[in-house]
Amino acid sequence: MLNKRLILCLIITFVGISSLAFAQNQEIREYKIQQGDTLWDISKKELNDPFLWPKVWKENPEIANPDRLAPGQTIRIPLYLIQREEKTEEPAVMEPIIEKAPAKESIHRVEPPPIPEKPLVSKNLYIASGRIAARINEVGKITGSPTMRTLFGNLDFIYVKTAGQVKPGDRFYVLKYPKVITHPVTNAKVGYLVDVAGVAEIKKFEFGETVAQILTNYNDITLGDILIPYEEMTPPVVSKPFRKPDIRGYIVAARNLKDNNGLFDVVYIDRGKKDGVEIGDMFRTVFIGKQKVPSGAVQVFTVNDTSSTAVVTESTISIIPGTMIMQAE
């Protein structure tokens, strides 16, 4: 009798493990790398969220650099990440409730609570998009790591050198080394591209080194990247209807210095507060060639004195630096 029970338990355990393994396999899709692919692009295409690329990288530890993938290589896409995103969707708003009133009395309608306005963009995109700035307030730099690596990701430890005294718990934004942005039409200097790669926090001091840990990374973080002061950033909320001001300007650059941009990509405009631009403003984009060709639309979500950051909300053809912006219809 004991042997039969033992055999039965083993069978149940084996079936359970097999079912779990099957379920996990069902949540993984194999993807063959194409020429020019990056984990950012793959995550955007396969998981509908480019900011999931660090988790795709974690699933494929054999990848040395997420921006330099070998064409023909097969990687694993964790589809269960899509399921988790679906579970976090906001609950549907309940229909208005009609209360029954006594005879010969008017019916009282209970109105549903107002639906709160959503931010123009997600917090991750808001922080990672950065801006074009007149100057960079550099306060430190990544000088190395305990593992001697030069490419870092989420939760990795790094060595930093700072201009002033710091203490455990201090946080900094990590920037790719700022690039000078030149206007694609006038060739004048516009400013420096602030490309936020992640957030680092000071953890301890040992062997003469200041040790920090990467809390979040939006892009690959490498040796030599700089630090700027940290401040809490919340994506803006603007009520409809959105403004459509009669302002003209140009797209001068795009996030990651991309030449071709489409839906949900981030671009930078040479118009800002001094020109009357406000957060939430909508503009249509026009490609200037032999003829003017409408190419899509953008919405501003960050405004500086002389420039703005916007997200592409509509794209009929690729939006490139030098594209004109004008009043939306």
Observed structural traits:
single chain; alpha+beta; Membrane-bound Lytic Murein Transglycosylase D, Chain A; Elongation Factor Tu (Ef-tu), domain 3; 3 domains; six-stranded antiparallel barrel; 5 helices; 34% strand; globular
Notes on the protein architecture:
The chain starts with a helix and ends with a strand. Helix content is 17%, strand content 34%. The protein has 5 helices and 21 strands. The chain folds into 3 domains: 13-75, LysM domain (Membrane-bound Lytic Murein Transglycosylase D, Chain A), CATH 3.10.350; 124-229, no CATH class; 249-327, Elongation Factor Tu (Ef-tu), domain 3. The protein has a 6-stranded antiparallel beta barrel with strand order 6-8-13-12-9-15. The protein has a 6-stranded antiparallel β-barrel with strand order 16-17-20-19-18-21. The radius of gyration is 25 Å and the shape is globular. It is of the alpha+beta class and 329 residues long.
List the helices and strands and how they pair.
Layout: H1 2-26, E1 28-32, H2 39-47, H3 53-59, E2 74-78, H4 80-87, E3 97-98, E4 109-110, H5 123-129, E5 131-133, E6 140-144, E7 151-152, E8 157-162, E9 171-175, E10 179-182, E11 189-194, E12 196-206, E13 209-217, E14 221-222, E15 226-229, E16 249-254, E17 266-269, E18 282-288, E19 292-303, E20 308-315, E21 324-327
Antiparallel strand pairs: 1-2, 3-4, 5-11, 6-8, 6-15, 7-14, 8-13, 9-12, 9-15, 10-11, 12-13, 16-17, 16-21, 17-20, 18-19, 18-21, 19-20
Summarize the structure.
With 329 residues, this protein is of the alpha+beta class. The protein is 17% helix and 34% strand.
